[in-house]
Amino acid sequence: MRRAPAAVTTPDIRVEDVSAAVGGKTVVEHVTLDIPAGTKLALVGTNGAGKSTLLRALAGINPAVAGVVTFDGRPVERIKPRERARIISFVSQEETPPAELRLGEMVALGRIPHRPPWAVESGSEESIVVDSLRKVGLDRRIDSPCDHLSGGERRRAMIARGLAQQCPVLMLDEPTNHLDIAWQLTLLDLIKSQPGTVIAAIHDIDTVLRNFDLVAVLHRGRLWAFGDPVEVIDHKLMDEAFEVDADQFRHPQTRQPHLLISRGKDHS
Amino acid sequence: MTRRRRGLPLLPILVVLILMGLASVVASLAFGAEPIPLSEVMRVVEDRLAGHPIGSPFDTIVWDLRMPRALLALIVGAGLSIGGAGMQTLVRNPLADPYLLGISSGASVGATAVITMGLLGGLGTWALSGGALIGAMGSATAVYLISRAQGGLTPLRMVLSGVVLSAAFSSIASFMVFMSNDDHAANSVMFWMLGSVAGATWQRLLLPAAALVLVGVGMLAVHNWMDALAAGPETAAALGVRTGALRTALFVALGVLIGSLVAVSGGIGFVGLIVPHAARMLVGATHRRMLPVAAALGAIFLVWVDVISRMVAPPQELPLGVVTGVIGAPVFLFLMGRRQYAFGGRDS
Questions:
Q1: What domains are defined for chain A?
Q2: 10-residue mean pLDDT series, chain B (348 residues)
Q3: How high is the ipTM of this complex?
Q4: Is B235 among the domain residues?
Q5: Tell me: the pLDDT tens digits for B201-225?
Q6: CATH code: domain of residue B123
C-alpha cells in the first residue's frame, strides 16, 4: 500500500482567468488571483456575487468552466481527489450531517483522505479529532448526536471537521455564519493562527480589514478589486460593490482599521 | 482524554447476535406442520455436520426441507437489512427501503408474466425466480438510465424515478393478473409479492448467499466512504471521495443484491426499512458498526418471522410480508416515539 506523505508543504495558488458556473449558469468570469503560500484571503461580495461558486472551483469540487487553478503549478483538476483532499480542506456553507452521527464521528470524517476506505480510526487520529473539537470549544460534546447541536455549534463542528483534515490549505464558506460575536472573534483568531493558507468567503467586511492579508471583491460576476484590505476597501468600493456609504476609521486606542457603515442605499 | 461513549460496544454485541442467529436457525427447525423434538433436530444437525451416517427418521424434513428454508430466511433477512441501509445512504433518506429503485415491482412484473402467461417454461422450477430476476434487473436499469439521462444519480432523481417506475410496473403486473383467465393466478401472484422462503432448496441458496457476501464485504470495504456519502455529497467530495463513481457502484451492488433476494423470496416488506434504524439505535450511525449489526438483526428477525408464518394457521402458510407488516408497523411506531432516536433528522 502506498503511504501518504506525512506533511504536504503549503502550495502557492494561482487562479488564472477562471470562470465558474453553478447549475450550468456561469456566475463569475475571468478571475485572476495570486495567492502566495500562507496567505489569509477573504472573498467578499453581495449575496449571489459568486463567492461560494468561486470557492468550490478553487477547491476543485466543482471544476472551473474556463481558466485554470494551480497548486504549485499543478492544475487542481489533475490532482486525484484523495490527494487533493490532503492538500485542501473545504468546509461548505451548510450540509446537515446524519442526525444520529455523533459529533466525534462527524469530525473524524476529516481523517478519511488520510487512510484507506476500509481502515479504522487510529489512536493518534482520535487525539486529532479531540484537538480539533477543543479549538472550536466542543470537546466536551464529543459524544452528542449531531442533531443536538445548535446552528452555531454545528457550524463550529463542521469547521472542526475541516481542521481535523489537517491540510495546508483551508477553504471555508462563510465560517462565521450563525456564530455569536465572541465565537466570531475566536474563529477569526483561529484563521489567523493557521500555519497554512486560508481562503474564506465572508460577509463581515469590517473584520476582513483586521484579520486577512488579502481581499478579493466579487461584483457583477467579475473580480472587482483584489489586494490588501486596508488599501482596497474604501468609500468608492463600498459604494460600487455593496451600495452602502462606508469609511475606514482607526480605533482611537488600538489604531486598528475599522469600517463604519453609515447608510444603506434605498433598496426599493 | 475525553472518555468516549459511542453506544454499545460492537464486538460483544456482534458475538451475541451471531450466537443468537445460529441458535435461532437450529431452534426454528423444530417448528412446522410436523413438530420435531429439539433433541432430534440436534441429532440430525450433529450427524450431518460431523458426516456421520444418518440415523434419524426426521433427516429429510430437517436437513432437506427446513434447513435450506431457515438459511434462506437468514440470508434474505441479512441481505434486505444491509440493502435497506445502503439504500438509505445512497439516497440520503431515512424512509428509503430496498425496493425504492423499483426492483420489487419490476420483479413482480417478471414473476407475474411467468405465473399468468407461463413464460420461461423451459427453466422449470427456476422459471419464477428467473422471471423475477429479469424484471428486477430491467427496472433497476431503467431507473438508472432515466436518472442518468436527467442529470445524474442525485438522491432526489433516484427517488422520483424509482417511485414513478414502481407505480408503473405495479400497474403492469396488476393488468396482467386482471387479463389472465386463470383464477388461481391472482392468488399465486399475491402470495409471491408478499414474499416467502417456502421454495428454498440447497441449490437456491447459492445466488442470494453469494450476492449477500459480495455486497456486504464490498460495502464494509469502503465503510469510510459510505460515512462520507451519508454526510452529504459536498462533504464527501471535500473528503476526496468520488461521489459519482461511489453512487454508481452502490446502485449496481444494491440492484444485484436486492434483485437476487427478490428473485428467490418475493417482496418481503418492512425488514429493510426498520432493521437499519434498529441497528443505528444500538451501535450508532457509522457504517462499520451499523452494517454488521443490521445484517445479524435482520437475519434473526426473518428466521423467526418464517417460524411464525408457518405456525399461525397450519397447514396454511402466511406470506412473510404479512407477518413482517403486522410486527413491523407497531415496532416502527414504537421506535418513532422514542425521543433519543431522530430517524436521520429532527422535526421542528
A1: 13-264 (3.40.50.300)
A2: 58 94 93 87 89 80 91 96 96 89 88 82 77 90 89 85 90 88 82 86 91 97 96 93 94 92 89 92 92 97 94 86 90 74 60
A3: 0.90
A4: yes
A5: 898 899 999 999 999 999 999 999 9
A6: 1.10.3470.10
Return residues 154-193 of A near B (CB < 8 Å): 161, 165
Domain-embedded: residue B258: yes
At residue A214, φ and ψ (nearest 5 deg) are: -135, 150
Specify if B1 maps to a domain: no
Q: Do A90 and B232 touch (CB under 8 A)?
A: no
Question: Residue A70 belongs to what H/E stretch?
Answer: strand A66-71
In chain A, residues with a C-beta closer than 8 Å to the C-beta of B338 are none
Nearest partner of A145 among B98, B346, B20, B265, judged by Cα: B346
pLDDT tens, B52-94?
Answer: 777 778 888 889 889 999 999 999 999 999 999 999 999 998 8
* B345 CA: distance to closest CA in chain A (Å): 5
**Identity of the residue in B220, B231, B238 whose CB atom sits nearest the CB atom of A97:** B231
Domain region containing B102: 10-337
Chain B residue with the nearest C-alpha to that of A98: B344
- Residues in B lying within 8 Å of A, measured between beta carbons: 1-2, 4-6, 220-225, 227-228, 230-232, 234-235, 237-242, 280-281, 284-286, 288, 341-346
Residue B345 covered by a domain: no
Q: Within its chain, how far is the Cα of B77 from the centroid?
A: 5
Q: Could you give the number of structural domains in chain B?
A: 1
Gap between the Cα atoms of B192 and B164, Å rounded? 22
SS3 track for chain B = CCCCCCCCCHHHHHHHHHHHHHHHHHHHCCCCCCCCCHHHHHHHHHHHHHCCCCCCCCHHHHHHHHHHHHHHHHHHHHHHHHHHHHHHHHCCCCCCCHHHHCHHHHHHHHHHHHHHHCCCHHHHHHHHHHHHHHHHHHHHHHHHHHHHHCCCCCHHHHHHHHHHHHHHHHHHHHHHHHHCCCHHHHHHHHHHHHCCCCCCCCHHHHHHHHHHHHHHHHHHHCHHHHHHHHHCHHHHHHCCCCHHHHHHHHHHHHHHHHHHHHHHHCCCCCHHHHHHHHHHHHHCCCHHHHHHHHHHHHHHHHHHHHHHHHHCCCCCCCCHHHHHHHHHHHHHHHHHHCCCCCCCCCCC
Nearest to A257 by CA among A194, A211, A216: A211
The contacts of residue B224 (CB under 8 Å, 6+ apart) are A112, A115, A116, A117, A118, A119
Nearest residue of chain B to residue A118 (CA atoms): B221
Residues of chain B contacting residue A90, judged by C-beta atoms under 8 Å apart: 237-238
Check CB contact under 8 Å for B286 and A85.
Answer: no
